[in-house]
Amino acid sequence: MCQFCHQHGEGEKWYFNAENYAEDLLSDLRRSKYIEHFFKDPQRLKDRINMLDTLNRMPGFVQAVIKPAIIGRMKKMHHGQVLPIEDVEEIFGFVNSVVRLPCVCRQASLGTEERYCYGLSMVPAEQSKLKGIVEAVGADYLTGPDMKGLETVPKKEALEHFKELEKKSLIHTVWTFVTPFIGGICNCDHDCMAFKATVMKSLPVMFRAEYVAKVEPELCIGCRNCISACQFGAINYSLARSKVAIEPRFCYGCGVCRVHCRKKAINLEERYKVPAAAGVW
Ligand code: SF4
Ligand code: SF4
Q1: I want to staple 113 with a disulfide (CB 3.0 to 4.6 A). Which of 102, 163, 177, 232 is the partner?
Q2: pTM of the predicted structure, to 2 decimals
Q3: What is the CATH topology of the domain spanning 211-273?
Q4: Could you give the residue range(s) of every CATH 3.30.70.20 domain in the chain?
Q5: Which atom in ligand 1 lies closest to the alpha carbon of residue 244?
Q6: For residue 264, which atom of ligand 1 is closest to its CA?
Q7: What DSSP designation does 19 have?
Q8: Which residues does ligand 2 sit against, CB inside 6 Å?
Q9: How far is the CA of 73 from the centre of ligand 2 (A)?
């Protein structure tokens, strides 16, 4: 289990601990201010990504000091972890309400309103302080092209949307707003700031999932559909064997490749049981 599970999971995966979604955590003024600022200024996220390019051009010894400091701060403030659809479903089973909202990252990187993010609450949506904080941010954030504001979504409908997004190879990620409070689950790709930082800018601010994918060689027909579905370049094709294999050290355990495999040749296993990946987060 990851570091967050040990610190905030009480013996299980940290995002299954209902206490991490508790509304009373939102009484913390620092946390509510952090959330407000996060939604108020999407451009700030874009500026930070641009700063990473500057950081990556600095001498190695400077990077060695600054990067751990940024990662440490991110873990305390806004940190995420990849999780597969089964775990999303389990979380939906115990939270009380699910609210769809426009993605701040897409607004920063594309300038468009894309409704890929879901806020979670242990109380009905109309009583949720989280919904209140985001709505209070105001019109700049909430009046995008479709003008819907925040939408309360039935869990079944939200889950169907998650499954649809998997077909487009988007990965699910769970996020803290001042750790350990969990604010929601997003659906990410290369337009997301944490994805850019982690995968494209070599600054890991998003944990890998508690799982690793594995191909059953006897079921694989070598069609290679899964390769283009993997956003992390973790799947290799062997010409000699006419089959694919997954490199456990590169796999983020999102499980999205499974959706693209007609032969059901890919399964997830617990990361801690795979020696090559057990310590790779
Ligand atoms: S999609 Fe399935 S059958 Fe096709 S190459 Fe990947 S694992 Fe093999
Ligand atoms: S190989 Fe790993 S990282 Fe790539 S899509 Fe499959 S589960 Fe996700």
Answers
A1: 102
A2: 0.93
A3: Alpha-Beta Plaits (3.30.70)
A4: 211-273
A5: 5
A6: 2
A7: G
A8: 213, 229-230, 232, 234-235, 246, 251-257
A9: 27
Per-residue model confidence (pLDDT) at position 143 = 53
pLDDT of residue 138: 64
Nearest residue (by CA) to ligand 1, atom 2, is 261
**Is the pLDDT at 132 greater than 90, yes or no?**
no
User: Which ligand minimizes its atom distance to the CA of 224?
Assistant: 1
Which residue would you say has higher pLDDT here, 113 or 196?
196
Cβ atoms within 10 Å of 198's Cβ, excluding its own: 22
- Residues in contact with ligand 1 by the CB-under-6-Å rule are 215, 220-226, 244, 260-261, 263, 265-266
CA proximity to 120, closest of 21, 26, 17: 21
CA distances from 232 to 63, 194, 251, 254 (A): 23, 14, 7, 10
Mean pLDDT of the chain: 90
Distance CA 11, CA 188 (A): 28
- Binned at pLDDT 50, 70 and 90, residue 88 comes out as very high
